[in-house]
C-alpha cells in the first residue's frame, strides 16, 4: 500500500491541482513554461518560430535581436552572435517542442532549455492555455 501510494502520489497531486484550478480559476504554478532556443541568424530564427507556431507547439514566440555569446565548443573558446527565441507554451509540450526543434535546427546541439512560469497575468496565462492544444 505504501509503495502504491508513493507511485501514485505525483499523478494524484497533479489531478488534485487541476481540479482545484478548475474550481477556483486559480493558476497552477508550472503549468506553462518559457523555452529558450538559440539561432545562428534572424532568418533561421524566423523559420524555426514559424514552424513551431504552425505545429501549434506554442502560443507566442519572441525573436530577440542579436546578442554576443561566448561558449566552449570541442574544447575551444568560441565567440559568436546569436538570435534568441522565447517560446511560451504548456509545460506538457516542452518534450515535443524540444524533439521537433532538434529535428529542424541546423546546430549539432541547439540550446533548448525551459523554465516553468511561476506566476503571471491570469488572462495571459489563460490565453496560452487556450492557444496550445492539450496533449
Automatic annotation (TrEMBL):
InterPro entries: Ion_tolerance_CutA, N-reg_PII-like_a/b, N-reg_PII/ATP_PRibTrfase_C. It comes from the Eukaryota. Pfam families: CutA1. Keywords: Signal. Residues 1-16 form the signal peptide. The keyword Cell wall biogenesis/degradation does not apply. Transmembrane segments: none annotated. GO terms for biological process: response to metal ion. GO terms for molecular function: copper ion binding. Homotrimer. Belongs to the CutA family. This is CUTA protein. It comes from Centropus unirufus. The lineage of its organism: Eukaryota, Metazoa, Chordata, Craniata, Vertebrata.
Amino acid at each position: 500500500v505504501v509503495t502504491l501510494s508513493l507511485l501514485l502520489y505525483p499523478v494524484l497531486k497533479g489531478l488534485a491541482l487541476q481540479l482545484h484550478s478548475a474550481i477556483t480559476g486559480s493558476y497552477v504554478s508550472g503549468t506553462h513554461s518559457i523555452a529558450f532556443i538559440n539561432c545562428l541568424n534572424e532568418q533561421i530564427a524566423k523559420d524555426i518560430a514559424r514552424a513551431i507556431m504552425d505545429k501549434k507547439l506554442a502560443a507566442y514566440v519572441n525573436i530577440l535581436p542579436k546578442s554576443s555569446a561566448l561558449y566552449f565548443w570541442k574544447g575551444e573558446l568560441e565567440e559568436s552572435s546569436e538570435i534568441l527565441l522565447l517560446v511560451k507554451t504548456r509545460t506538457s509540450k516542452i518534450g515535443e517542442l524540444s524533439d521537433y526543434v532538434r529535428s529542424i535546427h541546423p546546430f549539432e546541439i541547439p540550446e533548448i532549455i525551459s523554465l516553468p512560469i511561476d506566476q503571471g497575468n491570469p488572462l495571459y496565462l489563460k490565453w496560452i492555455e487556450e492557444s496550445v492544444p492539450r496533449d
